[in-house]
Amino acid sequence: MQTTWLLLLVISFSVGKTYGFSDLENFIRVIDSLNPNQTVVNYLNGSVFWKQPKSILQKLFNYEGYNINRKIRQSDGTFLSLSREFVVYRQPNTSEILLVLMNPISYNANEVFNVANDPVNAHIGSASPAMPVTPHLPEFLVYNTDIVLEYPNPLQPNNYANYSAGPVYDSVELFGFFSNSTLINASKTDSVPMTGTWMRKSQYLPWMVLGTTPVSLFYTTLAWKCYDGLQCVADDIMQIISDYMQIIKQNFPKYQYAPSTKRRGRLSKRL
Ligand SMILES: *[C@@H]1O[C@H](CO)[C@@H](O)[C@H](O)[C@H]1NC(C)=O
Ligand SMILES: *[C@@H]1O[C@H](CO)[C@@H](O)[C@H](O)[C@H]1NC(C)=O
Ligand SMILES: *[C@@H]1O[C@H](CO)[C@@H](O)[C@H](O)[C@H]1NC(C)=O
Ligand SMILES: *[C@@H]1O[C@H](CO)[C@@H](O)[C@H](O)[C@H]1NC(C)=O
Ligand SMILES: *[C@@H]1O[C@H](CO)[C@@H](O)[C@H](O)[C@H]1NC(C)=O
Ligand SMILES: *[C@@H]1O[C@H](CO)[C@@H](O)[C@H](O)[C@H]1NC(C)=O
User: Fold this and answer.
1) How far is the CA of 69 from the centre of ligand 3 (A)?
2) Taking the model in full, what pTM does it have?
3) Measured between alpha carbons, how far is 65 from 84 in angstroms, rounded to an integer?
């Protein structure tokens, strides 16, 4: 009798219910942290390509930066995500942060605007669909979050003809969050390591000033979770981004911290 009970206990532990996290809590542990006082930096690094109809993808930039965020549990068990983002465009061969783009489509020089999104808020009510990654079953789990953005463009063509790609803002953002399934089950930490991908397809950016020229942008990036705010970034990486840290510290000091309260913003995402 006692042996059976023990066996059942062992089985229930081995299927990973050890610490009783819900699917949503595990999702939050993977993408960020359950601790609202912990600021999590998700770093991203990759490429941006441009494409016109009937032509091939052509590399335009390297793309490097981060999202700094916190998750706050709501009384109904869902999570409020509060964050800011800062990303720069780099000349692909020299890695210099671009201030001016010699536009390969219009042949004009365009002033480059860094990505400085504040706030980027979201309400997360359920975990994204997750599946084990073959052939490493079940060590790795990947969560997919696909966001389709389609809404009236704040820059309408009748008012901003040179800057507006059209009456509808039209883009997709595709996230993959990979984490160690054994570790998710066997640990009780508020946050677990994550490596991921973020991809985006969109219209051209307003500062590219391309009017009605049909141009799509494709972003492919590798993303990963850092700890201890911005301190986690390795020395050699800090060296690579030191110019950009300079820009942030001088001009945008608040991008060193995640927001702690919700306020309205134009750039809110819904997961
Ligand atoms: C977060 O910080 C506040 C204020 O210091 C504290 O009251 C609260 O217990 C902390 N919460 C967690 C989960 O650490
Ligand atoms: C970058 O390097 C590639 C390969 O050497 C070259 O084809 C391209 O013209 C360079 N681009 C710029 C903007 O210098
Ligand atoms: C739009 O671009 C055209 C062609 O470059 C230019 O002549 C015109 O002044 C621009 N209009 C505005 C409002 O910037
Ligand atoms: C983790 O727990 C989940 C839910 O119980 C289970 O489906 C999964 O197989 C477990 N993963 C590992 C690697 O034990
Ligand atoms: C996953 O986590 C477990 C538990 O910490 C560890 O033993 C294992 O080596 C990890 N697997 C990988 C591929 O990192
Ligand atoms: C970002 O990507 C570029 C281009 O692949 C690479 O040279 C650089 O080392 C990467 N930076 C980090 C922090 O991974």
Assistant:
1) 39
2) 0.83
3) 11
